[in-house]
């Protein structure tokens, strides 16, 4: 058998409905395993015998489950499973087990081309080795379909052939409909579930990163340096791989610390450099934590799925699609040193059969280039290069540096399914864990909009608000105290003197946090230690720690003394004041401060040391307070890179809040990547608060008026309590993304392990339609489901097949309006 490897080409099949949408396939596990072998162990993976379909011949691409987006059709009957081929066609099929019988319905595909003439003539052939197991009669478009059952006698490899009937290939379009194999084990394998394979073109064993050292490329140098490889199982779900190279001449040590996940087709790595010599190193430049070429014979172009970041606009997190044309490069980057401000550093590169999720982890200024190096559309060679945007530095003796972090997830199938596997990985492995589980959702409240953040707040007002929420039947998980509780002269932005203002808060914040805790309400307190204003304690007393000096600027977390002060001082406040959740904001662009502090031979080092110090600061706070959650706020959602979210959750996903349509679109765009995030809401209007129904909620209403009707807020709270568990499930868009006010938007959260879920539907203010149907996902076709509207009660009982094929009918007479529907499988 000819060697081949799994296809690494990439494309979107939106909104595919399957019963096991987020289950991981053996082919995906194999793809990740191959990467580990090649890149972490420097061993060429053995790809002989991979399960899949190798297309040896076909006129145009073989298509699965249909033709041109429509079902296959044989003599008037539609088929949604199988393989569409065009003679002359030869497919080599490799199975993961020995086969007993091949089943299929065969015939000429009836479509706008073949139906107009009776000139299609094909013959279907099944072979195993040199043995012909089946040959059909000559078939035309008017021929009756033939149901075949071909004994395969234990073969694990066989061929599917469509001949042209000896009169040319015009109109010779053929369907292997409902094609499946019953294995000797009893397992049934549908052939359209198998991945396409390509001829032998292995991943190289070159390191998946690059840099230039003394004017020479790292690939050239590392190939000549001594190398050491270590492998260690971290736990039952992760294996660590550490590869270390040493330059005998300059004593530069380069190490790649990588991890492979056993329960997901996911790998990650970071590169570290250290000068173990007695002199400065030569210049290190263009450090790319990710630099690889992924070869493929996939025809056509690939599609890059990416998102706007959080620039505090109505289009925050808007999903984008970019065609990666042959010979062209798509470049994206962060802005002002804030990693998720302009562009979202999470990407999905999709092809016809398979794809790759690519995540760049750098809490500063990053850039990534996606280049299609192929000369034309006959094939695709994808080059990925990503890392800190500007690096050109030498290392002093004993000094170290690091690259950006890279996370890859391999997948086959459609984009939505791959995103749900990614969501599961984020919950299982990347978000902070407490007792082995991801953070819980919560409902919080604040008085920020009544007291100019905390500028006009007092101990008494904070206690009053806590008590009033409880009186109104809204049981808070957290009370949120925002900016301004500290000593300041000109308002809450005057940060740098991190001491509680005892005039407004006698005894500090502790009386408030103790009061809340006595009522079962924990505390969230806002900090912004990196931004230093002029005429504050830090700028006056420790200007050498501040990039900007006495005029204020950025607290340099790469400065050892500044870092130690920050750890000790903030930790002391958290402990003394009884703070349960640490909220760290970041309302400045640090890039200019970093760059202005660098000399020509140290470009990028101030940024690198600050980013490293920032992460280490949080790690130390977590070590001292292991049960404390951290909020990643940075002018809303401007610092939610993957490493930040390994330590924190985004309680405020964007500073663009209180706009219902934008809130819907933010949830739509962000849910593909993150299962946990939050925002605030102040309005009692159901459309408004349902547009901001999220895992983390901050209720911002004024509780001082006891005569006010707080029923809408209790409804908001009760809605959230009933549905918050669904946010941990799979996410399925049910409509297109749109900011227009004349559309409907909808999505579904599915808990497959519980056979239940939630559908959120929004009819916007100018929509002329009073009803719409939404095809649901991840249901059991043969089971029944009850559906309940939170406003109108039970809607009835429906089959899973009906809900997935015909769709769930939703009617809204009023505009704008929002509905929440819950479904559950009838046991």
Describe, in plain words, how this protein is organized in 3D.
The chain is an alpha+beta fold and 827 residues long. Helix content is 17%, strand content 35%. The strands form ten sheets. It has a nine-stranded antiparallel sheet. Strands 1-15-2-7-12-9-10 form a seven-stranded mixed sheet, with no helix packed on it. Helix 4 runs parallel beside helix 5. The radius of gyration is 30 Å and the shape is globular.
Structural shape: globular
**What percent strand?**
25-35%
Main sheet specs: 9 strands, antiparallel
Can you give the mean pLDDT? 92
What Rg is obtained from the alpha carbons, in whole angstroms? 30 Å
End-to-end Cα distance, whole Å, is 48 Å
Oligomer: single chain
Summarize the structure.
With 827 residues, the protein is of the alpha+beta class. It contains 13 helices and 51 strands.
